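We give its fold:
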Amino acid sequence: MCCLALSAYAQVEFPMGSDVVNVKEEPYNAKGDGKTDDTEAIQKALSDHPDGDFIIYLPHGIYKISSALTWPTADKPEKDYRRTILQGESMGGTIISLQDDVPGFENPDFPQAVIYTGDGPNARQRNSIRDLTLRTGKKNPGAIGIRFNASVQGTINNVKVASGDSAGVIGIDLGFTENIGPLLLKNVEVDGFDVGVYTAGKSNSMTFEHVTLGGQKKFGLDNDNQMLAIRGLRFKGSTTAVYSHGPDASMVFVDGTLEYDPGKKAAKGITAIVNEGELFARAVVVSKFKSKIKSTKKAYNESFSNTEIVEFSTQENHQLCHSPKQAMKLAVTETPNKAEQKSMYWTSITGEYGGKASDGSDDSKAIQDAIDDGAETIFFPPGGRWTINRDIYLRNRIHRLIGTEGKIDGKGKFIIEDGAFVDITIERFSTFASGITNRSKRTVVLKNMYVKSYESDDFATGDIFLEDVSVGTIRTNFQRLWGRQVTMVGDTKGPKISNNGGSIWILGLTARDGNTVLHNFNKGFAELLGVNVIASDKAKNSPMFINDNSSMSIAGLKETLTRGNPYSKIVEESRQGSKVYALKNTDLPHNETGGVMMALYTGYAPKQGQNEPPKPSMDKEHILVQPGKLHLQGNVEDDGRGDGLCRVPVAWRKGAGPGKVSFSDSTEYETDVTFTASGRYNLLFNANDGYQDRTDTGKVYVFDKRYTTLDHSGDNIPSGRGADAWISQFDNYTPHSTDEHLRVANDQNDAGKIYLKYDLSALPGPLFDAALKLEFDADSIKKPVQLNIFGLKETSKEMNFGEDKLGVDWKSDELTWENAPANLQQAGGQFNIRKNSGGGIDTKYADFIGIITINPKAPLGAFLRTPALTEFFKRKHASGLYTLILTAVEPGETFIKSRNAGKNMAPALYVGYYDNSRSVGGEAMDGGYTLTKVNIDIVNLECNFDLTVGYPQFVQIEILNESGKRMLTVAARELAGEKKTNFKFKAKAFPTGKYTLKIIGEAFTAEQKFFILN
């Protein structure tokens, strides 16, 4: 009888003729009585059966051993340590017990495994340990329970590893050599040891489900750089439950329970999970620990309740179509494990059915005859090869095919049809013909096997379960599939997995070579937890994942490159006829092999829950110099509810500003924008999900010129008399003009001040806007720094700033602490506006303009645009030179970039000026204004005229008589650009004569003659 794992004590038996290697039978004769040393018997059984997919079977009993059990070697190194299955009858009934105080197991610094399955780097396929308990005894502190190595397909299942006195180095070691994995640990318990389970590696992955750890001294689970997919891990103990570390470490951990229990010891402040790699955790209950997670990597979308890690990720959620930030959570069904037919009733295809192993003959008829004769369970003995060259139809009463690790090859496929049972299990095959086609409504369970392909036709509606399966391709149609440790092998012509409208949940997916891993389409659902893509050196012409009008969630993706050639596109997604969007290789962080790492991707529109309004966002501030265009990138966060579109419709528009604004496409997330005039603009970015809408606002400062201390033409070509330098109190007679940084410091012993000189002599028109921007090394600024800004006065070109002081045209290679104009022998400090003093500058020669803040977190860093600054640069300086002086407000020193750091780093002055050849709307306007004739009512002498200015500005309108005397002030006010304004005045008190209408604007002066007859 073979009744697989209804419980820890479910018995696994095999029929006569199954060719399993029973260690209690000849020639091995193990006793299993708990007294006799069975080491030699078990080791001989192992050594006699290398590389053959043989089952080394231990019936119920206590097998006392005194040294390590080692997997067999073969005739070639690449065949060593593989295709070997150590099988007990049940976890509770089959016990391998190491004696107490065994030589070789006494030193933790030189540990030794009780069961050793062989080293790498060659792949050790299809190794398994099942249905037994391993005891490592007492006084064996150097013991490691199991050093397990399996690759592509292999498992430790229904196994308990226990230390007799809690001593020992590791319970299960999965990191002792290279190239371990992919593999599955399921229904495993480890009691005691320093570390319960240790994992390590760079290229493969491991899947854990329902693993229980307890009584460890250092860590329950210690993961060193490996990729793990874990569900249902339980821990109870007095140390950290999970420690994940290493530059390429990646872990997905869901549905766990972690309990701190110090026992009789005093409680300590212990963290449940310590993480130094990529981590996605969800639905992990944590009790009695001081803290739930300590992560050196930044957390995103973290959500905790009092006792649960609701969701935690070390990367921002990646999306192409609007979706919730949280991973999709499909319902999970456990792999069926029903009571099976007693082994005495199993049917072998040998004997009366005529099946023959390894002779190359076609066994199709033998298998089909056994099925059609009503066989319920058919087994295939190991050690040989069975061949089918035509399709086999699984119908009638067939309920289970068990390979006992046998091989089936040939051109034929197995076709699943409806039968007497609603489910069918196929398990424990090292190869399984050309694949499986499902044409039934039956539940299909595939376990512990290699199979080339699985596909279901349009009539197959039953559920599918894959566990510890290596498969080439999977094709499903409107079915539900649950997978645990699925390895996709081979370079396929199409996608490895095609999900047509079904539901797929996989814990631990490894995909080798190239092509698309999953094509999810026709409203399908797919949740992948822990995906390791081992990319070949072939060019990748298709994306790794395609989500076509469907729902998909990927938690924990690691791409490993063997010889370059990564996937250029990681995900392509479209929804409801939208255009196809792509998440590219360059959008994600990379590991040491060059492959990508992704903690979470979501692409689904939820059908339930309250619709939250969209959250549009754009950069808060921009600077643009005319006649350039600005590239805008809008972003929208949305939960995908609403209309369920891939991307919420958006609209850009002008909110405020002097001129016209043109968008290259106002309905796209990315667009270019141009402006007809300089000034400050508010741009609005609106998103509407069909039910609710929201708007974000950003500022754009548009200027006509960018001057620096390096040039006076606005084109960044060195020219003019601009300059920058800093002065030092410490070496007060030394100029500082060649450094790449300018130092400002409020230090009583070594103060520093910065002088910036701008040459505006070539400014094309009257200035109406000015802003200062400073560049700095963001890493050097730990917190915002405030600097005073003063403007050097110039009442005449030859203005004198005192004895031995330089003038307005100071030279950077001459400027020192002693001769700098307006400098006082003070370090700096707060400026007192009421007293008009402070800041280390003589206000007799310089005016306080304001404070500029250097803040790495501010959108523009260090940027000042104020009326006071603009008014300073509006002043008429005969020299055309304008000097700003910067001093420190608080104690400490700060550095900004100088002209010597390059044209892009030099202190910059942005200016807007009046262009009297056009209006703010970009229309041609000679002189910058239009003025109608004065209309005079000859009866009432009521007069009026229309004035339009090209740019917003302040204007003063007066009426003058023939001698130039002002008769009347008509208006003195701000006028909007391009807006015609009608002005009226009464001339009834004016004597007969000639008069002049005089208009004085910031950018122009206009006059018009008219005659009054009174």
User: Anything to note?
Assistant: Confidence is low (pLDDT under 50) at residues 1-8. The radius of gyration is 41 Å.
